[in-house]
Amino acid sequence: MTKTTDNLKAAFAGESQANRRYLAFAKKADEDGYPQVARLFRAAAAGETVHALAHLRVLGEVKSTAENLQAAIGGENYEHTTMYPDFIKEAETESNKQAVQTFDRAMDVEIIHEKLYQEALDSIGKKQEEFDYYVCPVCGYLHARSAPERCPVCHTPGARFEKVS
Ligand code: FE2
Ligand code: FE2
Ligand code: FE2
Prior knowledge:
Layout lengths: L2 H29 L3 H25 L5 H29 L3 H26 L10 E3 L6 E3 L17 E3 L1
Antiparallel strand pairs: 1-2, 1-3
The chain binds fe (ii) ion (3 copies).
The site of one fe (ii) ion (FE2) has 8 residues, from loops.
């Protein structure tokens, strides 16, 4: 791997994080009564997404949809089989209950993400069925076609789920 490939990966990671950090800051600015600051954070977040996607494209990491689904399955699988179990153990050792909870929830949800990606991969080359997904705003659980009565992972009411069309 060349130094520039390393740098592109680092820049992609940094810009991706800046995007999410700015969206979190925008929400806080709105709560604090600074809607114009919130707008600036959201606008800059959109700019960082442009940078992140450009770096990823140069890295050559956006491939065919089947390959991208396979990559997504690999990432989700790594998270729920290796990364989060290790992180949970360490958080337990350090008695960080909030970290245990956020890792634990994410781990449960990554299993569902992997499953949905696998189903999508299995459907490649077949007639494509179209339906919406519903996202739990608390834990990130996804439900196909309709919102559940309550989130099976964190029990948030389905009425609060966000539809992704
Ligand atoms: Fe940037
Ligand atoms: Fe995931
Ligand atoms: Fe949830």
